[in-house]
Here is the input.
Amino acid sequence: MPTSKLPIVILISGSGSNLQAIIDATGKDKLPVDIRAVISNRPDAGGLQRASRAQLHTAVIDHTQFHDRETFGAALSQCIDNFEPKLVVLAGFMRLLTDDFVNHYSGRILNIHPSLLPAFKGLNTHVRALAAFKEGTVKKHGASVHFVTAELDGGPVILQARLPITQNDSPETLATRVLKREHQIYPQAIRWFAEDRLCLQGNQVWLDGRVLNTPVVVDHS
Ligand code: GAR
Here is the structure.
């Protein structure tokens, strides 16, 4: 197991509760990462305040200041690379990334998505999961940590938290329950990577020296 901390950069767009879970895990759970910077594409992202409170370096690369995704992606990766991270962590980062960007970080970029991928890629996952539950086609929902590839929300999945949908759920209650589990599985997957237990080779996830044919699933009631 490596003795030094893994340098990481975290990208956010919003409230940054997953960022907070990672920050907290570096303290109480001794997650062995050095958060070199938190970068937002939105100047008003609440997560920037969380980062400042934790005395982390912050930067904003405002996507509205760029003509296209390519120039935005190039500026973003230049900013990231200044901090020389070994892992880039997307924590509620809500911009589409170019193939060039994703390929540049191949095997060292993770994302968390609020669904049991491959179900419900894209936006409004809780609304769609609940609708599917009411149609009788889906019973469970959750969140997935995956390596990022050029296909949106399509990279190999590492770890999932799964929970039952109930008759009483609304999109809001579902979102709250899923988010709570996101805060557990994201630090866990980052720990595996930081401890050299997790990697991507080609399109295959390796964990503890074995190919992961299906994601690790943590079930909750
Ligand atoms: C989280 O639910 C995360 O899974 C989702 O955005 C939220 C960010 O919350 N990400 C995506 O939908 C990416 N496709 P946070 O800012 O409180 O961490």
